[in-house]
Design goal:
The structure is a single chain. With 253 residues, this protein is of the alpha/beta class. 37% of the residues lie in helices and 27% in strands. The chain has 2 domains: 160 residues, MoaB/Mog-like domain (Molybdenum Cofactor Biosythetic Enzyme, Chain A, 3-Layer(aba) Sandwich); 79 residues, Alpha-Beta Plaits (2-Layer Sandwich), CATH 3.30.70. A hairpin with a 2-residue loop joins strand 7 and strand 8.
Length: 253
């Protein structure tokens, strides 16, 4: 029986401060793990500058080949928070003031503190649906398969949880990790043959220096638990046959 096509997602991380190294991107890991729990595979991540051309191009490229696209960053009240207008450009629609967003923000800040800068956060692409922000009120938005969220991790995580029910995924990707003291050169040929034997399992090799010793971590991933167990056993047997030690580190659902 033909395997179901995986549900995929792309992520656009927006911000000059991330590209410069001054701010660490803490969102990719959370989004990737959360999507996997929903049976959605994060297949591509782009980090782009605060440039309308770059943001619009990245959004259009990813939404054309992914079931879902998520963006983080650039939806605050300052001049360099341009994500909303860039997404509007990507979709070829106008940027409009959402009455519900404006009312929500005015209630949050109060009439005296709800200035023009804060009103900017009520503007979304025409036709967009708001994403709740239970932390600081300023909403994100969804337009078609694109979800636009804040860059601050605590706020982004709250936003993601509020839209998780809108996402439809497939089977979660299961993972098994096996550590060995052998080097990649000793493993390469047999590991290639193992991959040929288990085409439904993604097999990756990653050098490590655990406890100050060089070695390799072999990571196997599949949506099929039974096939993953079989491949894992074959992988451990392969390592032992090559004279190495094999130790299973984790099994993640």
């Amino acid at each position: 029986m033909e395997e179901a096509k995986p549900v995929t997602a792309g992520l656009v991380v927006i911000g000059n401060e991330v590209l410069s190294g001054r701010t660490r991107d803490a969102n990719t890991q959370f989004i990737g793990a959360s999507l996997n729990d929903l049976g959605i595979r994060l297949t591509e991540v782009r980090v782009v500058a605060d440039s309308c051309d770059a943001i619009a191009e990245a959004v259009n490229a990813l939404r054309a080949r992914s079931d879902y696209v998520f963006t983080t960053g650039g939806i605050g009240p300052t001049h360099d928070d341009i994500t909303a207008q860039c997404v509007a450009r990507a979709f070829g629609v106008e940027l409009v003031c959402d009455p519900a967003a404006a009312a929500l923000l005015e209630r949050h800040y109060g009439p005296e503190r709800f200035n023009e800068s804060r009103r900017r956060m009520a503007f979304v692409p025409e036709g967009a649906t708001l994403i709740e922000n239970p932390v600081s009120a300023a909403p994100g938005f969804q337009i078609e398969n694109v979800f636009v969220m804040a860059g601050i991790p605590r706020i982004m995580q709250a936003m993601f949880k509020s839209i998780a029910h809108r996402l439809s995924g497939g089977a979660p990707l299961l993972s098994k990790t096996i550590a060995t003291d052998l080097g990649e050169g000793a493993l390469a040929a047999d590991l290639g043959r193992l991959q040929d034997d288990f085409p439904a399992v993604e097999i990756g090799s990653y050098p490590s220096t655990a406890q100050g010793r060089m070695g390799v971590r072999l990571v196997l991933r599949s949506t099929d638990r039974e096939i993953l167990e079989e491949a894992g056993a074959a992988c451990q047997a392969m390592v032992v046959s090559l004279g190495g030690a094999a130790r299973e580190l984790d099994y993640t659902a």
